Amino acid sequence: MDQVKFNMDHGPQHLSEETVKMLIQRSQGAKEQAYCRYSNFRVGAALLTPDNRVITGCNVENACYNLGVCAERNAIAKAVSEGHRSFKAIAISSDMSKEFISPCGGCRQFMREFGSNWDVFLTKPDGSYQRMTVDQLLPFGFGPEQLHEERV
Ligand code: THU
User: Fold this and answer.
1) Which of 17, 18, 32, 72 is catalytic?
2) Whole-model pTM?
3) Residue 145 bears catalytic tag
């Protein structure tokens, strides 16, 4: 049943340093594909599935500016369309040398759809990172479970 496959929360993973490094590198590779001719702000994302597959995404902007899509949302939409609904982690990369790239509110909500207890690696181009969970990035978030709560 759909509901059962949905939102499997894997909990914060204790990913090896090697796996984290690999995922960050994949997000940096995805960043190379960024289509960001309006902002010139490249972003890449790489998702890790429970069976250790990696699905990447980049931001894709549009001449109709408001239609642009973030890298994280693109990666999640790609993953879901390929049959993945559960994630261990996502790494996000940008070209900011002094700040960790932090996902926008919309992308936090998009992540929350697939659980609140998985890892988000905010990174810098030198490979350094800050690990957070979806729940830390979006406390008191709204998710699919709430749709099944008792109502008046
Ligand atoms: N962007 C992302 O793709 N992810 C983020 O975490 C922050 C912002 C994109 C959206 C837009 O294409 C560009 O970066 C500037 O906002």
Assistant:
1) 72
2) 0.93
3) no
